[in-house]
Task: structure prediction
Amino acid sequence: MNARRTAIGIALLGIAPMALTVLNATPAAAHGSMSDPVSRVAACFAEGPENPKSAACKAAVQLGGTQALYDWNAVRDGDADGKSKERIPDGKLCSAGNDEYKGLDLPRADWPATAMKAGKHTFRYRATAPHKGTFALYLTKDGYDPTKPLKWSDLEAEPFAKATDPTLEDGSYVFDGTVPARSGRHLVYSIWQRSDSPEAFYTCSDVVFGKDGGGAGNVPAPAPTASAPTDGQIATDAAKSSMDMDHHGHTAPDGQERSAPAAGSDAGGMRPDGAAAPADGSHLAKTGGDGTTAALAIGGAAVLTLGSGVLFTTARRRSARHQN
Result:
């Protein structure tokens, strides 16, 4: 009888800290980048951070280093709160004003680009840590000159495509939009503003309508085709990301702010145990739910702890028998 009481006591004591751990844990931060049309940072990451192939990506690495490419899914402003235009200065739209990504702001007419045409288009945004929020896509105006620093006034005042909490398919958010008519080289600028946090994410995707005329004055310029990183590359290079953070406020162990998933989360293509996460994105959990997950986790913790208590009781009884 005493053994049974001891086991129950152990079980109850075990449930309490496990339940508190579940209740105090917060969802992983949102992360991602446009994959169709491919963003600058994603295209350069796909080329290989250490040895990029295109001249533009090489220049970006020379200016900002390779780490920015390993952190390809974290071009962000943690305090945007819907005020992106007020917070991000002209000339720094592609880096979101973050010095780590300053190489993305280089004004060039030879960034890897995605072929684009007017009309309906299905956009894809690779999300390594999905979250509720709204996507807004802006297109550069007629007369856009890629050889000059990108300014807010270079973009149309209103987004040509907008989607709130779009469908998540195979690890990517998917939504449709109608692309305005353009010719030559242009840029699609995306803002992903979270609805459960002031944090927002940004991408610059270079696109070409018809033939690429390069910069102003129809100066010819090479236009390498942009490719999105593969699931395998994302999983393989996840360990090189500087995105280890705690659960509350994007702070890394060194005290520096990071744009990354919470420590121990499975964002970035890897599970907490270091194994590669499923390539289809099935390991990604949407957040902002009704608390069912927490309840199930607490219940599961209770079952496991009670099971440990039963095993403890059984072992103690067997030990008593042997002593008798």
Remarks:
- The chain has a mean pLDDT of 75.
- The first strand starts at residue 31 and ends at 36.
- The chain is about 25% helix and 20% strand.
